[in-house]
TrEMBL record:
Alphabetic keyword roster: Hydrolase
InterPro entries: AB_hydrolase_fold, CocE/Ser_esterase, Galactose-bd-like_sf, Xaa-Pro-like_dom, Xaa-Pro_dipept_C, Xaa-Pro_dipeptidyl-ppase/CocE
Region (Disordered): 1-34, 442-470
Protein's recorded name: Putative peptidase
The keyword Transport is annotated on this UniProt entry: no
Pfam families per the UniProt record, alphabetical: Peptidase_S15, PepX_C
Residue ranges occupied by any Xaa-Pro dipeptidyl-peptidase C-terminal domain in the UniProt entry: 395-668
One GO molecular-function entry: dipeptidyl-peptidase activity
Coiled-coil intervals, chain numbering: none
Keyword Hydrolase found: yes
Domain of life of the organism encoding this protein: Bacteria
Length: 678
């Protein structure tokens, strides 16, 4: 007989409507109930209540030998008795493989589980909310703890005590593992499959395996799942990626400052030995083998990245088969997969694209996207109108798919979105049902709403002639105003939001260096949902041009908040039509640029050409009295970096946006509702 768990943990008859609204919540939650209703209250009660076992046993010195002889190091966390003796009963295993050094993960776990202090930190992270103050960004970062993301990233003691075994493995060439770091390479992917097989042979595993993780460990979870190993039965992936090139590495043909920063961080961490196992490693010879491998590859990929950036003579500075073998083949995945993303995450495109690429039934696949960045994921979860905490969702997901508990989690969502400008919603698909393709045209006519920008233009539903009746050129220069912008917050994985609202909610500083085009105020709310493309007609005095754009919500008080962004170098304007997204009428919604060396196009000097700049798919409501704005920039440092040879080729270029009635610039997007024409 099917059953569900009530808040006390007892089995009861399954509710026919598991997603009923909270008793004290309004019954007008749009599209569904993102809180999960009664079922979610039961999931949380299980996580926060008394567990099956009182303690956990942590073995930090596990050696796993791969088929090529490389020894990987792991931490195994098992349920235990009050005396700390590990339980012999076999349970499902949850595997996490990442390069961030188990010593760091174990340190976070110990800090959050110090008596009194740990509970105080968790409570404070959820109780302090600085929204609307200069500390709003800082409290979003600390809210990660109360939102459950760190429990999914690291040791989740409540999960283990409920009857699971967690296995954390240092990726080869990182942490205490031997070998050379491949950064998602094929050998590393094979390691994941061998680790799954290894887990199923251990006496503490009942043969059923799940994979979970945040960022890197989410990506290699998806990589493992696309190989369809029989024992892997479920994945819970926070902020993974399906297209490394277009998400972060070479967005629009431009590189990101995040990549060298991240590579440097991991390369530094891989030189830090695990202090808890150092003595035994020295005695058994593992330390010598570890040091030998580090010396062979002291700074993995950093020399090639610098060489490519300075000379463009490394093919990996462009889209290359190197990346193709590293991108998860999401369409091959057959095990139930829950993905979590953010509209302004480093992997913002993948936040929605992974769900759309999964060939699974809704429920077997789930997507949750918040209005945040990479390191503030989960903030606000567990609140009155918000989704459950991420550790609660993870437990419910694995309980259902690895323990066959009919707890209703497959009926949650399946598409749970934090609508920018609105609240959390739960529905059946993305984009939202009922959207239509719309276009808004850029005009040089003043909107009267952006006198601070280099040009205050209009954005209207009617195809305009210019105010003068002729072609109008609007010059724009590269600058460094992107250092104080949402672009900066994105490239720092969200860390910059701690510096104040100008990094996440107020674009006024950056807009002073750009061209703004704004609609009149809307009289009824308009919901923008889906892919966004900006067609621009541009020219440059050099043989290259770089363009970055944002789409903003402008409040009645003039505050301009970025909803989504994009960028493109003019030489990479060629489209792969087969992989681009089009609507039924042939309108381009999401351009897919080749980004390869051989498909670069010449850039004519001082002659206008058309480019299509894809923005990260998004979901937002433009409320009554608000406006929609397009901002156009010549660059956005350091979110987008230009290769040195391209800078030289540009010869201190002067760029201009050309508004020509014969070749209009326009925004194409999907929405419910419409914007006024004038």
């Amino acid at each position: 007989m099917a059953y569900r768990l009530d808040p006390t943990g007892k089995k009861t008859a399954r509710a026919t409507s598991p997603a009923a609204p909270l008793d004290d919540a309004p019954h007008s939650l749009p599209l569904g109930d993102p809180t999960g209703g009664a079922n979610a209250r039961a999931w949380r009660a299980l996580v926060d209540g008394k567990q099956l076992y009182p303690r956990v046993h942590i073995d930090r010195n596990v050696v796993i030998t791969m088929s090529d002889g490389v020894r990987l190091r792991a931490t195994v966390v098992r349920p235990a008795t009050r005396l700390g003796t590990p339980i012999n009963t076999p349970y499902p295993a949850i595997l996490s493989v990442n390069p961030y050094n188990r010593a760091l993960i174990e340190g976070i776990d110990e800090a959050l589980n110090v008596p009194v202090f740990g509970k105080a930190v968790r409570a404070a992270s959820g109780a302090v909310d600085g929204t609307g103050t200069p500390f709003g960004g800082l409290t979003r970062l600390t809210g990660v703890i109360s939102g459950g993301a760190l429990d999914v990233f690291g040791i989740n003691r409540n999960l283990v005590r409920s009857g699971y075994t967690q296995v954390f493995v240092d990726v080869r060439g990182t942490g205490a593992s031997q070998g050379k770091w491949q950064i998602f390479g094929m050998r590393e992917q094979k390691d994941s499959l061998e680790l799954i097989d290894w887990a199923t042979t251990q006496p503490w595993c009942n043969g059923r395996v799940g994979m979970a993780g945040w960022s890197y460990s989410a990506i290699n979870s998806l990589q493992a799942a696309d190989k369809r190993p029989r024992a892997l039965e479920a994945v819970f992936a926070i902020e993974g990626c399906s297209d490394i090139v277009r998400d972060i590495y070479i967005t629009g043909g431009m590189h990101s400052a995040f990549i060298p920063i991240w590579l440097s961080m991991v390369n530094l961490l891989k030189w830090v030995p695990n202090p808890r196992t150092l003595l035994s490693d020295l005695g058994q010879g593992d330390a010598a083998r570890w040091l030998r491998d580090r010396v062979k590859s002291p700074a993995t990929e950093i020399p090639s990245l610098l060489w490519g950036f300075l000379t463009t003579r490394d093919e990996r500075i462009f889209d290359d088969p190197y990346f193709d073998e590293r991108d998860p083949k999401v369409g091959n995945i057959t095990c139930p997969t829950f993905t979590v993303g953010g509209w302004h995450d480093l992997f913002g495109n993948s936040s929605t694209q992974i769900y759309r690429q999964l060939n699974l039934k809704p429920g077997e696949k789930q997507m949750l996207v918040g209005n945040g960045y990479h390191v503030d994921v989960g903030t606000g979860h567990g609140g009155r109108f918000a989704p459950p905490r991420l550790d609660v969702l993870e437990r419910a997901w694995f309980d259902h798919w690895l323990k066959d508990i009919d707890n209703g989690v497959e009926e949650y969502g399946p598409v749970t979105l934090e609508q920018q400008g609105g609240g959390w919603t739960s529905g059946t698909e993305f984009p939202r049902p009922g959207v239509t393709t719309q276009q808004l045209y850029l005009s040089d006519e003043s909107s009267g709403s952006a006198p601070h920008s280099r040009h205050d233009g209009s954005l209207a539903a009617t195809k305009p002639a210019s105010a003068t009746g002729d072609q109008v050129s609007l010059p724009v220069q590269a600058g460094v105003r992107g250092l104080v912008s949402r672009d900066m917050a994105q490239v720092t994985a969200g860390a910059a939001i701690a510096l104040g609202p100008k990094f996440y909610a107020d674009s006024s500083f950056q807009e002073r260096g750009g061209l703004s085009f704004t609609t009149p105020e809307v009289t009824e709310p308009v919901q923008v949902s889906g892919s966004v493309n900006l067609r621009l007609y541009v020219a440059s005095t050099g043989e290259e041009g770089t363009w970055t754009v944002t789409l903003n919500d402008v409040a009645p008080d003039g505050t301009s908040t970025v909803l989504t962004n994009g960028g493109l170098t003019v030489a990479h304007r060629a489209l792969d039509h087969a992989q681009s997204e089009w609507d039924a009428d042939g309108n381009l919604l999401r351009p897919y640029h080749y980004l390869t060396r051989v498909r670069k196009l010449p850039v004519p000097v001082d002659r206008p050409v058309a480019i299509d700049v894809d923005m990260v798919p998004t979901d937002a409501v433009i409320d009554a009295g608000h406006r929609l704005r397009v901002d156009v920039y010549a660059a956005s440092f350091p979110r987008f970096l230009t290769l040195v040879p391209d800078l030289i080729k540009a010869r201190s270029r002067r760029q201009r946006l050309v508004l020509d009635p014969a070749h209009p610039s326009y925004l194409t997007f999907q929405a419910i509702g419409s914007f006024p024409s004038a």
